[in-house]
Design goal:
Distance between the termini: 20 Å
CATH superfamily of the largest domain: HAD superfamily/HAD-like
CATH topology of the largest domain: Rossmann fold
CATH architecture of the largest domain: 3-Layer(aba) Sandwich
Structural class: alpha/beta
Helix content: 40-55%
Number of domains: 2
Strand order of the largest sheet: 3-2-1-4-5-6
Strand content: 5-15%
Radius of gyration: 18 Å
Order of helices and strands: EHHHHEHEHEHEEH
Shape: globular
Amino acid sequence: MLRGIIFDMDGTLTKPNVDFAALEREIGAKVGFIIDYAERSSPEERKRALEILERYEAQAAMESELNEGVLEMLEFVSKKQLKKALLTRNSRKSVNTVLRKHNLHFEFIVSREDTKPKPAPDPIFLLSKWMDIHTDHLLMVGDYKYDIMCGKAAGTKTALLRYAEYVETELSPDFEIDSIREVIHIIEHFEQMSTDLHGGRNE
């Protein structure tokens, strides 16, 4: 039975809009994921890299746009009385900007300040505790392999939102969707499974 859903933010609820190429140019190196780069750098370089990252994140948060179907999907989640959480490698400050701008509310939020970031399972274990839901009954929804790796490592079901320019072949998410609105169909799938299971017990 599905009791809660954990959502990634950038690229999942919002359209991806951080200019990573410009960010790397300012840092002065091809660094890949800035958080990972910062963690393996000297304290001074770590501070500099994170300051640059936070500036770009703040700009992206202010200019953020929701993916089509997000509001409809979140309303459906609430109607089904499923708990919902937000899990992101972004800063809490940029998360708050996005939520205020789009009038969104998540009772449970984990940002990079709270615990070891994705793809480690730590943030889902933390959310599982806060939500009082075992990971067996959670669904992790994201648009990148780190989201799926994180969910699988923690024992949740996983759903990958695919973009045409990003096709990850090494992953095997439980569900693949082309629109965030399709989370509604996933919820209905779990409802049908539960109905079938309980129906079978009564025969």
